[in-house]
Amino acid sequence: MTLVFGPLYHLYERTDQERAISEAIRVTKRGGIIAIAYLSSDSIMVDWTLRDRHLLDGMGKDFDENFKIINYPEGVFAAFYIQEFKDLMAKFPVRMEHNIAADGMARHMMEQIDGLTDAEFAVWMKYHLSTCEREELQGYSNHLLYICRKL
User: Fold this and answer.
1) pLDDT in tens, 24-67
2) For residues 85 and 92, what is the distance between their CA atoms, to the nearest angstrom?
3) Closest alpha carbon to 143 in 4, 38, 47, 30
4) What is the C-alpha separation between 34 and 95, in angstroms, rounded?
5) Which strand ranges, in their side-by-side order, compose the sheet holding 94-101?
6) Looking at residue 128, what is its pLDDT?
7) φ, ψ dihedrals at 85, nearest 5°
């Protein structure tokens, strides 16, 4: 198993991203598992601009007219649309096993989740685990985990 937890958060050029993924694949045995963490552009949009009230500051600098994050070194993070990341991975000799929204909507609801009773939290976790692979909800997760098998 090869873990790629963090590099893609800070690789802004497609050639650097492809090089990191290629290296992970190279060091993994055929049939081995590769887990790659990446960030969601939509979640950063919601988090930085709406929740933290930086909507006007970020437009044109951190986000384009379609609200996609602009990947540049001074921006601290690089992020993807989910389909964009899947398209990137389709270039490599791997088969996707799972694409998981690691934190789901939790980042945007921290205070509410922190206030749950133990019984309520157990239901919340059951909900999260039952929805973390639903594509229509994944964009709201800050962190995603692409799990694939080397062909």
Assistant:
1) 999 999 999 999 999 999 898 888 766 666 666 666 678 888 88
2) 12
3) 38
4) 10
5) 2-4, 33-39, 143-150, 94-101
6) 95
7) -70, -40
Grade residue 87 by pLDDT with cuts at 50, 70 and 90. Answer: very high
Sign of CA dihedral 112, 113, 116, 120: positive
**Average pLDDT of the chain to the nearest whole number:** 91
Q: What is the DSSP letter of 109?
A: G
Helices assigned H by DSSP within the chain: 14-26, 41-44, 55-58, 82-89, 110-114, 118-131, 135-138
From CA 127, how far away is CA 134, in angstroms rounded?
Answer: 11
Q: At what angle do helices 14-26 and 82-89 cross, to 10 degrees?
A: 50
Alpha carbon distance 127, 62 (integer Å): 32
Spatial separation of the C-alpha atoms in residues 134 and 109, rounded to whole Å: 18
